[in-house]
Specification:
Largest sheet: 8 strands, mixed
Number of strands: 14
Shape: globular
Number of domains: 3
Structural class: alpha/beta
Strand content: 5-15%
Order of helices and strands: EHEHHEHEHEHEHEHHEHHHHEHEHEEHEE
CATH class of the largest domain: Alpha Beta
Number of helices: 16
Bound molecules: uridine-5'-diphosphate-glucuronic acid
Helix content: 40-55%
Strand order of the largest sheet: 3-2-1-4-5-6-7-8
Length: 466
């Protein structure tokens, strides 16, 4: 089918490339012409695992193209996916200016029949507004359906998630729209992947057909918000449990494992740490709270989810100060700047919040992140020394803080790091290690809600590396 994807951010680019790789003809377009130019020359604006290969293969087959000409792309496509950004306004509500602009553009450019699919995360009833704009501005020249097809792709694993979704949600008000979307996704629904890697990944994880969830447009829009908010709630819950474990002398990993093994609860998204960040959970939570208030429901539960998350940085900084006392002039190593592992995205990164606080308190920082350093260089205030290797953050440091859960950090040369530090202390803001693991290299170690094998007041403060 001929598809057009408007917006080449994490969602649009991944979706467009993957749709092309399952056999559709896809034109991706974006109002940012430098992005399109880069993509035309094979330069990706983001780091996303497997995406370069998927784009190269789809572009090579001629099924995926990038165009500056949004009008022509809309004219050529049967189905138009809206994947533009919905950033938060000052009051926390989603800004829908880009969505409206695209709807108008479609109304002016498309003739005959079009299916217009919203993928951007939007408040409930946005579909109705899109429908209104299309009706008003096409002046009877356009026959259309509007659908909501929320995405559940995680940054860093977006390609995998596209091919192995738990469910595909389509909110449509007509059978015509539902059956077109079913046709578009049928290779994913049937597990027919043309690319060898997907077939292998599917075999390894025991491929299960995704659920096909056909709903009204309003329900689909709400499913996305309800899902992201629920996942945020799980994380805040795990963080609250971790704090209670610290107070009670229990171990959060043991407690959360015991909790998550109940299939009604599930083990995912129960990792405590310095909190959730990124451009989805924080903004979607605010937008959902605002939207619920407008509808007449005061979502206190989600306000508490936000409040718990906001306190994570304070809590972590308290630990840093407990261990290091005065931070002025002290060298601290920082491992991780991205908002999570697997991405170079630093938007609303909890690691940034910690770094800013350390700089405010006068610490000297040595930082490393496998992907996010070019961005961090431009975005963070001066006072951070960026290192070439993870091990280099340890040089002369009084502590190393783990702020992003990159698995690569586990493979760092910790013996060398202990030797290079003034005090071999690790404060693990992501529970990347088990208590005891780093102690074997002479480190003192503190995780989140973890029970240290040795009580803090009896721990030596001058352990030596091996
Ligand atoms: C999230 C959702 O998981 C996707 O399903 C959704 O499509 C996407 O938002 C979106 O709305 O576009 P993403 O923001 O990429 O995906 O990242 P997550 O993997 O969900 O992690 C979000 C944050 O929570 C990260 O800062 C991560 O470190 C943190 N987190 C995650 C925890 O602190 N603990 C956990 O157990 C899990």
């Amino acid at each position: 089918m001929k598809l057009c994807v408007i917006g080449t951010g994490y969602v649009g680019l991944t979706t467009g490339a993957c749709l092309a790789s399952i056999g559709h003809e896809v034109i991706c377009t974006d109002s940012d012409s430098s992005k399109i130019e880069g993509l035309q020359h094979g330069r990706l604006p983001i780091y996303e695992e497997r995406l370069p290969e998927v784009i190269a293969a789809a572009a090579g087959s001629g099924r995926l193209t990038f165009s500056h000409d949004g009008n022509a792309a809309i004219q050529a496509a049967e189905v138009i996916f809206i994947c533009v950004g919905t950033p938060p306004d000052a009051d926390g509500k989603a800004n829908l200016a880009a969505v409206e602009a695209v709807a108008r553009q479609v109304a002016h450019q498309a003739r005959g029949y079009r299916l217009v699919v919203g993928k951007s995360t939007v408040p409930v009833h946005t579909g109705e507004q899109i429908r209104r704009v299309l009706t008003t501005h096409s002046r009877g020249q356009l026959e259309f359906d509007v659908a909501s097809n929320p995405e559940f792709l995680r940054e860093g694993t977006g390609v995998y998630d596209f091919f192995h979704p738990d469910r595909i949600v389509v909110g449509c008000d007509s059978e015509r729209a539902t059956s077109r979307l079913h046709q578009i996704y049928s290779p994913v629904l049937e597990g027919k992947f043309s690319c060898g890697w997907h077939a292998k990944a599917a075999a390894q994880c025991g491929w299960k057909p995704p659920a096909w969830v056909a709903t009204s447009v309003a329900s689909a829009e709400l499913i996305k918000h309800a899902s992201n908010s629920f996942l945020s709630m799980k994380i805040s819950y795990a963080n609250a449990i971790a704090d209670i474990c610290e107070l009670a002398g229990a171990d959060s990993a043991e407690v959360l494992r015991g909790l998550g093994l109940d299939r009604r609860i599930g083990a995912d998204f129960l990792r405590p740490g310095i909190g959730f960040g990124g451009f989805c959970f924080p903004k979607d939570l605010s937008a959902f709270i605002e939207m619920s208030t407008e509808l007449g429901y005061d979502f206190q539960l989600l306000r508490e989810v936000q409040a718990i998350n906001a306190r994570r940085i304070e809590q972590f900084m308290r630990k840093v100060r407990e261990e290091l006392w005065v931070l002025q002039g002290k060298t601290i190593g920082v491992l991780g700047l991205a908002f999570k592992a697997g991405t170079d995205d630093t938007r609303l990164s909890p690691a940034y919040a910690v770094v800013r606080e350390l700089l405010r308190l006068g610490a000297r920082l040595r930082a490393y992140d496998p992907q996010a350093m070019p961005r961090a260089h431009d975005e963070l205030p001066a006072g951070v020394h960026y290192c070439e290797r993870a091990e280099d953050v340890a040089e002369g440091a009084e502590a190393v803080l783990i702020l992003t859960e990159w698995p690569d950090f586990r493979a760092a040369k910790w013996t060398e790091m202990a030797r290079r530090m003034t005090r071999p202390l690790v404060l693990d803001g992501r529970n990347l290690f088990e208590p005891g693991e780093l102690e074997q290299f002479g480190f003192e170690y503190r995780g989140i809600g973890r029970r240290s094998p040795v009580p803090p007041h009896t721990r030596p403060h001058s352990a030596t590396g091996n």
